[in-house]
Design a protein that fits this description.
InterPro entries: HSP90_C, Hsp90_fam, Ribosomal_Su5_D2-typ_SF. It is built from 11 helices and 7 strands. By secondary structure, the chain is α/β, with parallel strands linked by helices. A hairpin with a 2-residue loop joins strand 3 and strand 4 (64-68).
Length: 220
Amino acid sequence: MTLDNYIERAKDSKTIFYLAAPSRSLAEASPYYESLKSKQQEVLFCYEPYDELVLMQLQQFKGYKLVSVEKDMRDDKAANDLSNLGEDSLKRSEVNELSDWIKTKLSGKAVEVNATTRLENHPCVVTVEEMAAARHFIRTQSHQLSEDRRYALLQPKFEINPRHPIIKKLHKLITSDPHLAELLANQLFANSMVGAGLVEDPRVLLTSMNALLAKALEKH
């Protein structure tokens, strides 16, 4: 599909949404895409690394703003309105308690921890200000920096889904098993960083994943 095709099919929106992913299957399964999919909002899938850099620099096309789905999620203040969470969700007080606890455990990594209503099937995501620039930075320059410096530059926000079973279980674990809860919170954040394409080598997850599995299996 061309940008002209997209505009022809657009309804009332003056925005062209796009999502960069290695493949169509990964794009369709992306946590950043699911809320727009539920609204039947068309999104351009981009499979080459340079696609999102070009679209980010272009900014607009024939009066239509070019917006990445990750940027749309980060800027969506309405998604942080927790007034209508429903009975299947953590209560607002529990969300605040869990968010503050996670922020403490992810100190030096996540600049903010918020709950979002934009997630349905995923427990959490990471957003940064400009995902395309961040991914390009990770691919080309991040190996020259320490982990602390990398996080300081990326300024990732960690967004949790208060309706997801894993997040609800994590809230219980912060009092019943704080060590397991900390391992789980760090693993969820690491998984989200990989899902966002912000980890140069995903194999770094194996050590923390094994530690989490070992702790989870202690009683079995």
